[in-house]
Amino acid sequence: MIDIKATTELEAVNTILDAVLETQVNTITAGNDAVVKSAIGYLNEASRSLQQKGWVFNTIKEYKLTPDASKFIHIPDSISQVTLAGSSVSIRQRKLFNLTDNTFEFSGVQTVSVVQRLSFDDLPDAARHYVTIKAAARAQDDKIPDNLTYRITQRNVAEAWSGFRTEDTRASASNFR
Question: The whole model's pTM is what?
Answer without folding.
Answer: 0.82
